[in-house]
Design a protein that fits this description.
Number of domains: 2
Helix content: 55-70%
Distance between the termini: 27 Å
Low-confidence stretches: none
Largest sheet: 2 strands, antiparallel
Oligomer: single chain
CATH class of the largest domain: Mainly Alpha
CATH superfamily of the largest domain: AhpD-like
CATH topology of the largest domain: AhpD-like
């Protein structure tokens, strides 16, 4: 089953994957680089990003570092990604990362509470601190002195920068998919996001 991205009706995917025979050489090369890399396919934000192969490659490199090479614990990375997806209402990143968060060790009840817009508990101390940091950053476009001090004390300066970049990266790719109406295949037992009432 496909979960559409965006709540406009009638719904259509605005920037689908171009047919292979219509791709430019740059698009084909960029697609092949994704297939040959850790992602193994062109999916999610890379479908609309294929419209700009150079941008796709540069965004892909940043995401590859943040997802696969950052020293932030996988639990923290996945939980923060879920918080971003919930905040901007992105189906693709939610379905993918909610399952990954649970697999990494985040409590499934906390993920479901986040999906519903409720207070998440129980969380490990580092998870709660990272979630508070990310949600404050998303709400206020910055963080308070107490939040910053707690994050620096727990994670150190380098990882505070990486945590901030993680929030920014996933906000950016979620926005791209929100604009493009990039759908996601439902799977791994994770329900999609319902729109919050206005």
């Amino acid at each position: 089953m496909t979960i559409p991205q965006g709540h406009t009706r009638p719904w259509s995917e605005r920037l689908p994957l171009p047919a292979a025979d219509t791709m430019s050489e740059a698009q084909r090369a960029a697609a092949q680089a994704l297939i040959d890399g850790p992602r193994k396919a062109v999916f999610g934000p890379f479908v609309p990003l294929l419209q700009s192969p150079v941008l796709m490659e540069r965004i892909g490199s940043l995401g590859e570092y943040l997802r696969f090479d950052s020293a932030l614990d996988a639990r923290v990375r996945e939980l923060v990604t879920c918080a971003v997806a919930r905040h901007v209402g992105n189906q693709f990143e939610w379905v993918l990362h909610a399952a990954a968060a649970v697999k990494a060790g985040v409590d499934a009840g906390a993920i479901e509470a986040l999906r519903l817009g409720r207070r998440t508990a129980p969380l490990a101390d580092d998870e709660q601190l990272a979630l508070d940091f990310a949600q404050e950053l998303l709400r206020n476009d910055g963080v308070s002195e107490p939040t910053y001090a707690a994050a620096e004390a727990r994670f150190g300066k380098t990882l505070v920068v990486e945590l901030s970049a993680l929030v920014g990266y996933f906000t950016m790719v979620c926005w791209i998919m929100n604009v493009a109406h990039t759908p996601v295949q439902a799977g791994q037992g994770q329900p999609g996001l319902d729109a919050f009432p206005l």
